[in-house]
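Hi Y.,

Following your request, here is the sequence exactly as I used it, all 362 residues.
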Amino acid sequence: MTVRVEYIYRYPVKGFRAERLKRGALAAGAGLAWDRAFAFTSGNQPPPENNTDWTQARSFIQMTVYPQLAGFSAQVNETEDTLHIKSPDDIEAATGLGSGDDSAVNALMNRHFNPGPLGSIQLHRLANAHGHWDFSDTSISIINLATVEWLEWVSGMTLSHLRFRGNLYVTGLEPFEEFTLAGQTIRFGSVTMKVLRPALRCAATAADPWSGDTSIDVVNILRTYTGHAFCGMYAEVLTSGELFEDDHLRPVEADLFNPSGIMPDRTPDPVLWPRPAVVQRTSEGSVNFKPADASWPFVPANAGARATLHPGLDYTREPVRLTLSERGDHEVMPVSGEALEELVDGSRVILSGPVERRSGRA
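Below is the corresponding structure, written out as tokens. Let me know if you'd prefer a different format.
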């Protein structure tokens, strides 16, 4: 099946509504042009010291705390060199992309948000092309539309894909098959990127992207029906180029994957990431898991460590907690637990772990 780009979105102002693009320019070491290039300081944290360094998200107004941001939109007009923002009451203001008089946009935001103890709401630009991302190594995110549709089906809820604030929304993958891309170098059109890790979702996904209503707890839906809270993949752009809707994915290479070697601070422990594995049934009837890709080995663990079998690929039932029946190594994870009798030799599954008991990581 062909994997293709269905939608391209950028978020000129962090926390605001998405801006859909038919085509987008991506830069190596960055992402889509003007994606998350702007943010508004919250006044609750010290403001950024400059406009070049990466800054943690909590310095800015973000949808996790201010779901009413869903009512704000932003558009970039590169021809006019202007950023336009619109509030929920249809008041508009503008400022320059690279520099300019920000008084109008600041005044608009301060009419809707109370200043924090450290100051009023102020526009913040990034002079570099990386954008206001939560992690210093990520510059683009990929969402599998089949995974969102699966979550809608099992929960009975209507979930806009824009809740996940992705840049590239793709079709052609099975639900949760995006987790198999971790560590791979891939190409969409002329753009090459390295897929880094799954995206751990936060409370911001509860905010409806159009109304700001927070009555649907998406993180709880994920944990209940999948046994984890990940949806989508973060990636790093390696080569610059243009990307279009309907561009197709092409694998480039799979390097030896060392997740801990690419993780910035505050990222989830790689042992908790949902990852692909293959079922191996022994002649004695027991079950082992083997890495689906030899370039991404298991973490060795002792008997009694816990692992979780998640829905996805050839296993379509509810998540199941498993226990290592004996010590596992880089190549084999021997397990015991419920639902193992239905696993077919050679079938593909999604699992996480192993986590040693009392390790503090479960």
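The chain has three domains: 11-17+33-125, 140-270, 271-355.

Thanks again,
Q.
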